[in-house]
Amino acid sequence: MNMTNVKQPFIERHIIMTPGPVEVHPNVLKAMQSPIIGQFDEKFLSLMDETMEMTREIFQTKNHWAYPIVGTARAGIEALLSATLEPGDKAYVPIFGRFGHLIAEIAKRTKANVHTSEIPLGEVYSFETLKKEIDASNPKVVAIVHGESSTGMMQPLKALGKYCQKQGIILIVDAVATIGGTDFKMDEWGIDGAITGSQKCLAAPAGMALISYNKKIESIINAREKYDQGLDPNSINDRMISSNYLDLSQLQAYWSPKRLNHHTEATSMLYAVHEALRLTLEEGLDKSIKRHTLNMNALSEGLKAMGLHAFGDKTNHLPTIKCFYIPKGIDSVAFRQKLVNDYHIEIAPGFGPLKDNVWRIGALGYSSRKQNVLILLNAIESLLLYYGASINTGKAFLAANKVYKK
User: Are 198 and 210 in contact (CB under 8 A)?
Assistant: First the structure.
């Protein structure tokens, strides 16, 4: 290829109704255009401190440690598990979808003794089942998904958190698809460590994992503290965290008054996260949660009125992401591609056994807007008719508007 002929790409705006990434708020994009300054500039350090304070509010916690890590949400999960689990430690991971499997995979890489259980897709765990597995496996850490975006299910956590707290067990929660879009009370529910991603309900680009953890986890991190020899030649620790890049003992030193020179911060991404958090708190966390619930309810009622059926346990659906069965005779790949080509709208396929059976449709962050819901419903209805599906016509828009009028 003659690179002198390569032109700047023109990317047209899409309506992104997937489980993530989502449409980025215009103010967040504007913030990312701010000039680059040094990561130890006083103005930048103030942005870091403000980001920590706003992260605490979003997680509904009084934990001191609440900050973003450069990397997607998976980096946050790996950082917390690598910090808390050492070779031979016992961990329990309940699986009810793809991302439970991911947590188990990451936990096993710490060389911990990982116990898993699995229930059918579309279900969530009862507290009694979780308690039975915990009592039988006696883990140091329980790690679980809150909102399983592969199935559209949301796991109740309050009873689990209280029980783990009572038993002295560390509870780590993947709240990637939920924080900012549904209630998540970290302190009240007894959660020790939690993770979310910048590209979901916060409506920033992918690239930052926001984490928080309490003093129980901090004490483990401090006992494993190890700095690079180039920074501290006397820093030696046989228990050091296996990952250097995701070493929370160094990362928390970077986010502390020490300002340890662990990495070069992704400056523009911090601008983005700072603005995304500010916008969420400006809207009000409660209002953000209500907006997500309202738009998903309107979307769901519209699709149901059209004749589509939701997947899974109806009492535990996520208010941010829901799976719907693909109508009989519809080629999912061709349908989604035409949705992009003709309408510039994106929805997502299912994972694993659900790949050819469901669509995963999200209404998160800045994508969670009434106009997006109504445009998507009209687009899906017209394309299903184009492909000859048997659906109820003219009802989806009315059903969605009925929800909004309430």
Answer: yes
* Number of independent structural domains in the chain: 2
The predicted pLDDT at position 4 comes to 76
Residue 5 Cα distances to 11, 12, 257, angstroms: 18, 21, 49
Report the amino acid identity of residue 257: P
* Domain membership flag for residue 123: yes
Query: What 3 state SS string does 88-144 have?
Result: CCEEEEEECCHHHHHHHHHHHHCCCEEEEEECCCCCCCCHHHHHHHHHHHCCCEEEE
Average pLDDT, the chain: 97
160 and 248 housed in the same domain: yes
- Picking from 255, 281, 307, the residue at the C-terminal end of a domain is 281
Segments forming the whole domain that contains residue 348: 284-405
State the pTM of this model. 0.97
Look-up of token digits 């980096």: 75
Angstrom distance (rounded) from CA 196 to CA 211: 7
What is the rounded CA–CA span in Å between residue 111 and residue 101? 16
